[in-house]
Specification:
Elements lengths: L17 E4 L2 E4 L8 H6 L11 H19 L5 E5 L9 H15 L3 E4 L5 H11 L4 E6 L13 E5 L2 H10 L4 E3 L4 H15 L8 E4 L1 H16 L6 H4 L2 E4 L2 H20 L13
């Protein structure tokens, strides 16, 4: 309506002023003086609404939509984790390059956090072997974008959206020596498998010397106090050999395919979420 009438009492037989907004009908004093399109296109007014939770929900949703859309047709992939601080002249860097090459040679895309160090090395190995190299970056104050070896990449604002992509589009994790971020990914993966949120999902730690102290503490303290079970710790496979790591991944994939063909799943397991 072009004009808004007075909300005074309407005489018998007269129709009250009415406005339809989508499927909603408003009458009398509820009638607004502008349309939804007018308010959308009018750039006047405060802009602090972009920092409110309802707007954040839309940004979060967009990250899931973009991530799903980018990776839905990726094919078999493995997420590789490791320290961003690993230097090119460190042995772990060479290990990560060889790992990326071996995974690509086995038919897997390589997914990393897209940063420098071990992540860059794994992406580099995948590219040099002719495989697909994926980077899932994160907005941080102290890291500068995706590394140069990324074929397909996306930067996330939110850790939890990024974490979902690491698990949903990977058939397993291979973990090189790393810091707090790497440990976070390891324990989240173990938790998801232990709680049967994902199934037939191998977790391989490369570097027995590096991981020995953590694994010993888990056994001597956490397991000994009854806070985890032996089977939980068995979810972590440790090796120093890139070839063995890839073999563990391939065996888990074969087991998963066999179970899928037979219409079964591991005893006590839950179906992997879509």
């Amino acid at each position: 309506m072009s004009e808004r009438s007075s909300p005074d009492v309407v005489a018998d037989g007269d129709e009250p002023e009415e406005m339809q907004s989508g499927r909603i009908i408003k009458r009398r004093e509820q009638v607004e003086g502008s349309t939804t399109d007018q308010r959308l296109l009018d750039n006047r007014g405060p802009s602090d609404w972009v920092h409110t939770d309802p707007w954040r929900v839309l940004r979060i949703q967009s990250e899931f939509v973009e991530g799903f859309g980018m990776l839905a047709e990726l094919g078999p992939a493995i997420s590789v984790f490791g320290s961003a601080r690993t230097k090119p002249d460190h042995p772990d860097y060479d290990t990560a390059v060889r790992l990326g090459k071996a995974l690509a040679g086995a038919g897997y895309a390589v997914i990393t956090g897209g940063g420098p160090g071990a992540m860059e090395a794994a992406n580099k190995g995948a590219v040099e072997a002719g495989g697909t190299s994926v980077g899932l970056g994160i907005e941080l104050p102290f890291e500068s974008g995706l590394n140069q070896w990324i074929d397909i990449g996306i930067n996330f604002r939110y850790f939890f959206a990024r974490k979902t992509m690491f698990v949903k589009y990977a058939q397993g994790f291979v973990v090189l020596p790393g810091g707090l971020g790497t440990l976070d990914e390891v324990f989240e993966a173990v938790t998801l498998v232990q709680t049967q949120k994902v199934t037939s999902f191998p977790i391989v730690l490369i570097g027995s010397d590096y991981w020995a102290g953590l694994l010993q503490w888990l056994r001597d303290t956490v397991l000994a106090s009854g806070r985890v079970s032996e089977v939980d710790l068995d979810l972590l496979k440790v090796t120093d050999d890139v070839g063995e790591a890839v073999q563990i991944i391939k065996e888990a994939a074969a087991e998963r395919d066999s179970l899928a063909a037979g219409g079964g799943e591991p005893e006590g397991s839950a179906t992997r979420p879509d």
